[in-house]
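Example: Methyl-accepting transducer domain-containing protein.
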Amino acid sequence: MGQQRTILSIRKETRQMFKKLNKMKIGARLKKSFRQIILIFGILSALVVVIMLYTINNYGTILDNYAYPQGDIAMAMNESAEVRAASRGIVGYDSDSLIESMKEQHEQAVKSFEEYLEKIRPTMITKEGTACMDAIDKAWAEYKEVDAKVIEVGATTDTAKSLQAQRMMTDEAAPKYQALDDALQKLMALNISLGNAKRAQLRTVMIAALTIIIIVIAVSTIYSNSLSVAISKSIEKPLNELKDRFITFAEGDIDSPLPTVESEDEIKELVSGVSAMSDRIRVIIKDSGRMLNEMSEGNFAIDTECEEVYTGAFTDLLTGIRKMNEEIDTTVRGVDDASGQVLTGSTNLAEAAQSLAEGATDQAASVEEMQATINELTSGIKTTAEELGTAYDEAYKYAEIAEGSRGDMEVLVQAMSRINETSEKIGAIITQIEDIASQTNLLSLNASIEAARAGEAGKGFAVVADQIRNLAEQSAKSAVDSKALIEAAIHEVGDGNMYAEKASTSLREVVDGIQAIADSAKKIKEISIEQADSMEQVEATAERIAEVVQNNSAAAQETSATSEELTAQATTLSGMVSVFKLRQ
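Written out as structure tokens, the predicted fold is:
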């Protein structure tokens, strides 16, 4: 339970520490965390050093006060035995030299024993040890006193005294020695007991210290791990969320919110910067999408509502949209102007063709009338050759009619020439229409490409561009067909001019002939047969003129129909262009 409470307390303190760390920059957070971990392991290292110093010191104390003194006590006990053995030798030997030698050993043993006692004395730091030393000192003093008496009596070669000294050793010295030996044994036992107790105490302290070190290491590990996990999560989690948001942002999701960051570090600043960037891109995309949608619906009189957000590289986007708007606006204006010009030219062409058709019809009627007149004239020449006087008057009459017909033929020739010039102008206009249709087709292709680049926002404009391209292709086809018809008409008109000039020449010859008839009325009779032949030739020529005039009338009607069709197509094109709202 105590460990659980400690762990819970550590976790609580750790959470509070995390809250404080989250308000710091990443660098400061990591530095402070590393400082804390270094401080913890520094304290742990200091604790280990203290425990090691304590252990070394206590082991030194044990060695100095318990282990080493045990050897000294043993040596003292050995020296006491040497003292006793030397005393026995002094009392037992009957040779003076041996007795003197044993005395020297005795003195040396006494000296060594006392030196060991003095060496042992400082190590007796407990009351029990001091008491034992006091008992040893007392027992040694008593034994030494008795031993001196024994040596004084027995250090001789006299047998009686030797026996007396031996009895003294047995009766007096032996109990004293036993008391000394018991005191030494008691000191040895006490020293061993105290040493074992001190060693057990040191072992307990070592176990407690190791336990504390293990607990500190565990707590430090838990704290360090929690700290590292928390710091890594505080950095990794928002970065992963931000990475996922960047992926959706790259896929076109600009409306979803960015991840919330609770820390007050560089990641929050990064999220704030990305949020501002996302807001700006959202505004730019909506504004550019609005402009493209307006243009796809035919409204080119539009502009951005938030020019201030188009900064940096986005300026190129706004410039591109504006340039595309201006190019398409200019193109549509050009198509509108061209359709207006085509409409005007086709209307004029239709009117001219209608006038030509009507004139050709009138000419055909005049030629038929002339043909009938020539027929009648031929019959009259054949049947009334004898009526020369009447023929003379009629010749002048018909000369005047022929002169008028010649004037009509000249007018017809001039009209055919004008039709030829008008047809050539119409051909030039058709060529311009083909160029305009080609340019419109090219512009619609460019518009389709730009619409494809714009994606979904450009689909509507792509449909309009396709319609413009189809209309341009239809206009180009119609222009080609019209050009072919007009070229055919020009060819036919050229033939008509040639035949009209021939007819005019023939009429001039007829007029000259009639005048000659008028002047040579008297000679008509002789040459009436020749005149009849000439009139038959004139009749054939009139028939050819009638055919030419009929062909001219048909060509004029066909040109009028083509012009009306071109007018209708120009009107349709103008109507389609009128749906666009152009810039002022």
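The chain has ten helices and no strands.
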